[in-house]
Each structure stands twice: as C-alpha cells, then as structure tokens.
Design brief:
Oligomer: single chain
Number of domains: 4
Number of helices: 30
Structural class: mainly alpha
Helix content: over 70%
Number of strands: 0
Strand content: under 5%
Distance between the termini: 43 Å
Order of helices and strands: HHHHHHHHHHHHHHHHHHHHHHHHHHHHHH
Length: about 625
C-alpha cells in the first residue's frame, strides 16, 4: 500500500493545488458579486452555472479523453479554469461571469474524471477504498484552505484572481513531470434515468437533494454572511465549517447506515438537518457565532452525506452489473440538484429576505422527509445484513464515481491468447474458412484447443456441432472438456451436441458434469439437465437422476448464498429448479419425490412452485402434503 501511495503523490499533489484554487473561487465569486450590489437572484443563477458545466463535463469528458488523451485534457482543463478566474477580474459582466462559472464547472468535472481514472488504474480491490478516502481528504483540505485565501486581499483586487489562476496552472506541473500512464477509458452505458427512479426512488431523490441542498449552501452562504454583517475571516470560517462538516459526519452516519435500515437513517438525519438549518438565522441574530458554526457544520455535513446514502440505497436494489451505468445517471441527478438549488435560493433571498434562505432549506428538508417516510411505508426494507457497504465520499461536492469500490465489476471473459483471437477473427470475417483455421491451430497448439474452440463457438453463425465433431477427432482424449467449452461459449448449443457429451461420458461422471455445464451455461440449464437425465435412463440407471439433481442443486444453493440481494432477486435459478422438477416428474416420476424434496431444501423459495409443478404432473398426493408442510423463507 505504501508503494502505491508513493506512486500517486503527483496525482494527489495536482488535485490538492487545483482544488485550492477551486475553494478560493467558490467563495470569491459570490463575495465579489455581493460587494458589487448584484441582486441575490442573479448571484444564485450565476453560481448554478457551475453545475451546468459539471453536467456537461460528466456527459462528454470521456469522449474527449478518447480523442485527445488524459494528459492533454487535464492540461487543457486546468488552463480553462485559470482563464475563467482571470477573465472574471477583467470584465464585471453578469453574463460573462455566468459563462465563466460554467467553464470552471466543466474544468473541475474533467479534472476529477481524469484523476479518478488514473487513481482507479493504480488501485486494487484491497486498496481502492483507502485511495478513495485519501483522495477525498486531499480535495476537502484543499477546498477548506482555499476558502481562507480570500483574506489575502480585497475581493475586487487583482491579487486574488491572479492567485486563483496561478494555482490552477501550477496544478498541471506535478502531472506533466510524472510518469503516469494513460489508463483505459470506462465507457459503460448509462442507465436510463426513468429506470433508476423506478428501481430506487429514495436513493435517486437523495442524490438530487444532496445537489440541491449542498449546492445552495456552498453557493449562497457567503452572500448571506455578508448581508448579515459577517466579514473577513468569519466568512471563511462559515464556508469552511460547511465543508468540514461534510467530511466529519461521513463516518458516524456511515456507521449508522451500515447497521440500521438505510431509509430510516436518511429520514432521521434529514429531520436533524431540518432543525439545525431552521435554527441558523436565530443564532446569527443572537450573535452566537460559535453555535452558528456548529449548526452550519451539522446541517451541511448531513446534506453532504445524502449523496453517499442515496448511492448506497440505490446500490442495494441494483444488480452488480448495473452499478457502473447507474453512476452516470446519479451524476445527472446530482448536477440537476446543483442547478436548481442556488437558482431557487437566490430568488427566495431577493424577494423574501436573507433569513428566508434557511427557511426554504428547512421546508425542502421537510418535504423530502415526508417523501422518504412514504417510501418506507410502500416498499419493504432490505434486510440490514444484506445492504451494500456505505462508502464515504462527496464531502467536497464532487463525486468520485470511478473510484467507488462497489462499481468494480467486469462481466467479460479473460483476454484471449493470440491463437484464439486469430481463430475468432477468422470465424467473424471468413466463417467458411474458420474450420480449417481452427484445425491448423489445434494441430500446432493442442493444449489450446479448448480455448480456441470456445472463442470460435461464441461467433454467431458457426456450426458448433461440426466444430465439436472435427476437433473431437483430433483430440479425442479431451472430448468432455471440449464440449463444455463449446456449450458454455455458444448462446444456442444444439440439443444433439449436449446429448453427445453425456452419451460419451462415464455414467458416474454425468452428475458433476451436468452441474458444471449448467453453471457455465445457465441459460441452457434445463436442456443440459434433461440430456443428462435421458442419458442415465438409457443406461438403465434411474437412481443417478437424484445424483444429477443434488449436484446441480448444491451449486445453485451455494451461488444463491453468495449473491447480493438484488442479484439474487434477478436470478433465474428458482425458475430453473422448478422446471427441472417438472421435467423429472414427467420423465422419471418415480424419482420425483426425492428430487422435489431436495429442491425445496436447497431453494426454499421454490416450494410453492414445485408443489404446483407436481400437481400438473399428477404426482403422489402424500409428496404434495410433505412439501406443503416444509417451512419456507419469507
């Protein structure tokens, strides 16, 4: 781990320096606009443009990485950030500042995505969480310290803008001088927004609320403070308290989220934040500055945790393969909240007064709490011991999607050897010549025959039966392994090929062979079990049917036990078990009792379907009674 962190020093240093400038810019822009007499509603709209840039960056940065590469995009993004800060000093124009605010949002999004890609490339399953935590600490501390740089000079002085531009440029130096290799670009398809909302309304709305509430606080708190006569270092302390609270509260709330129902935790912390937010104007009015800092840190800290809480709640209900794609939609939800929040806050402050800002936030908290309470009533909670682990992030207001260890998932086969890749390419472009090519490769590299066969069988249009027959003549000693490779790779292996495997296999090997083949090709489970059943019946060995069922059911039970909650709900093993019982009840009714009992014991949730299947095949009445009496899991 130490060696890994040492190799990442340049990345952490670049991130720290750039976010130092980002922290300065976040407090400089609203403070300067307020000092120039710009109305609060226009300030809110200008600050909201940061999230517009963040959204555009999140949508298109990966395409730019493919076109120009990581280092060029990182350098260009830092330059855009520097230009945005310096241009704001040259022209005090609201439209100009809004455009520059969007540009710096794009810059931060691009820098974050590129840096996350580099860090993710260096991280392993064991180190990913720690690298994410360290990266969050680096960004948080930079933003916290950056908010104090505003005290170096008046907000209308060129010095602050020059400092902001300098630190953005300086952030390029560690990356440019380091030996960082360009990582692969993760281009996972984004989950449709409506699908995400349908899967987890509470999770998606929590992410949106984080963007809305946290974006409002980080954008308008400095304006509120100045309007209330809070100046100098005290403004930095207020903004710093908001940032610091977002980091400190990640850990206790994360602990609660892992040990109690997730939506209940969201509801409780939202209510606490609502009360703290509503009390802030009173503490300011009584000049209790320390208490104000505590209330701001508490409310902002809880707002910041709504993002990781929402991600965790959503991941509880998403399949593993959907998580990476869902993060793209989460980013859109977060940015949409970041656009909405400051815009509404500025309007409220202009038309209803400064204190109405916190009243608005408290009301939004209350409405969100009502929605979460409603969701707890209309949908059953996931068992606490089956919830996804909470991952602390988002305290800086920027998401680190690629570093989230829960999204580390690949559903691809291992890289093919040159021989297998050559055969697959030939099968794709010249299928009529593929068989001859496969035979040549198999003769030259007989130890690779199974890999080559699997690579070719995966290509559409290949006659897998002919492939098996020709390769089997060449390597008869590997007939079973060869057939397994072909059947597992082929999306629709012919029934005669499946049957041929069991006809040639030894009778005592059929149960384990059937179980392993069904696990390798789950979409063909019933065909495989049926072929194995017919093979042992032809050998006049019906007792082996129970062995086939037990071997298959043992694998199913073990796999279901290891599955995540959402993956288990989407798994088709329960239906496959029922279909297997139905098939055996038809072909070997005398074995139905033992097979059905074993099926219910391995997959208790299938009990009612198994009973129904036995009824359809006129199975023994006392068997049905026995199965009905067996306990089932809720």
């Amino acid at each position: 781990m130490t060696a890994t962190l040492i190799s990442l020093i340049a990345l952490f240093l670049s991130g720290f320096v750039i976010f130092l400038g980002h922290g300065l810019n976040n407090i400089l822009v609203p403070s300067r606009l307020a000092s120039e007499g710009i109305s609060a509603d226009n300030i809110g709209l200008i600050m909201a443009m940061f999230s517009v840039g963040l959204l555009i960056g999140g949508l298109y940065v990966r395409q730019l990485i493919v076109r120009v590469g990581h280092i060029r995009l990182f350098t260009a993004s830092a330059a855009i950030g520097a230009i945005s800060i310096l241009a704001c000093y040259l022209w005090l124009n609201e439209w100009m500042w809004a455009a520059m605010r969007a540009c710096i949002g794009f810059s931060i999004a691009a820098i974050t995505i590129v840096t996350d890609g580099w860090l993710s490339e260096r991280a392993t399953s064991e180190t990913r969480s720690r690298i994410l935590s360290i990266n969050q600490i680096v960004l948080l501390s930079a933003m916290f310290l950056g908010s104090f740089l505003i005290n170096l000079a008046p907000v209308n002085d060129a010095i602050l803008y020059i400092i902001g531009g300098l630190v953005f440029c300086a952030g390029v130096v560690p990356i440019a001088l380091s030996k960082v290799s360009a990582p692969l670009v993760d281009d996972s398809p984004r989950m449709p927004m409506l699908e995400l909302l349908k899967v987890s309304p509470a999770g998606a709305s929590s992410v949106f609320m984080c963007g809305l509430l946290l974006g409002s606080i980080l954008s308008m708190l400095a304006v509120y403070a100045q309007n209330q006569g809070i100046t100098g270092v005290d403004v930095s302390l207020l903004v710093g308290a908001a940032i610091l609270g977002g980091f400190v509260l990640q850990f206790p709330i994360g602990y609660l989220a892992d040990h109690y129902n997730r939506r209940t935790v969201i509801l409780c912390v939202t209510l606490i934040s609502m009360v703290a937010t509503a009390l802030i104007p009173f503490s300011v009015g009584l000049d209790w500055f320390v208490i104000t800092l505590v209330l701001v840190g508490l409310s902002s800290g809880i707002m910041a945790t709504l993002y990781p809480l929402g991600i965790s709640e959503s991941f509880d209900r998403l399949q593993q393969s959907q998580m990476s794609g869902a993060m793209g939609s989460m980013m859109i939800m977060y940015a949409a909240g970041g656009i909405t929040g400051p815009s509404i806050a500025g309007f409220i402050m202009k038309h209803f007064g400064d204190n109405a800002f916190f009243t608005m936030l408290a009301v939004i908290h209350g409405l969100f709490a009502v929605f979460i309470f409603y969701r707890t009533r209309v949908r059953e909670a996931i068992p606490v011991d089956q919830q996804e682990t909470y991952v602390a992030q988002g305290a800086s207001g920027i998401m680190s999607a690629e570093l989230d260890p829960r999204t580390e998932y690949t559903d691809t086969a291992p890289a093919l050897s040159p021989a297998a890749q050559t055969a697959a390419d030939m099968a794709t472009h010249h299928p009529e010549q593929a068989m001859d090519m496969v035979m040549l490769i198999a003769k030259a590299n007989p130890e690779q025959v199974n890999e080559v066969a699997g690579a070719v069988a995966a290509v559409d249009g290949i006659d897998v039966t002919e492939l098996y027959n020709r390769l089997n003549e060449l390597t008869p000693a590997q007939d079973t392994e060869l057939a397994q490779s072909i059947i597992a790779a082929s999306t629709e292996a012919p029934a005669e090929l499946v049957s041929a495997v069991f006809e040639e296999a030894e009778s005592e090997d059929i149960p384990e062979l059937a179980a392993s083949m069904a696990e390798a090709a789950p979409e063909q489970t019933l065909d495989i079990i049926e072929a194995a059943t017919e093979a042992v019946l032809e050998d006049d060995n019906p007792e082996a049917i129970m062995e086939i069922a037990e071997a298959y059911l043992s694998n199913v039970s073990d796999n279901l036990e290891d599955m995540r909650y959402a993956d288990r709900l989407a798994d088709e093993s329960e239906q496959n078990v029922t279909d297997m019982v139905s098939m055996i009840a038809e072909k070997a009714p005398e074995q139905a009792m033992d097979v059905a009992a074993a099926a219910v014991e391995a997959v208790p949730e299938s009990a009612s379907d198994v009973v129904e299947a036995l009824h359809e095949h006129d199975a023994i009445d006392d068997l049905v009674s026995d199965l009905k009496d067996k306990p089932t899991q809720p």
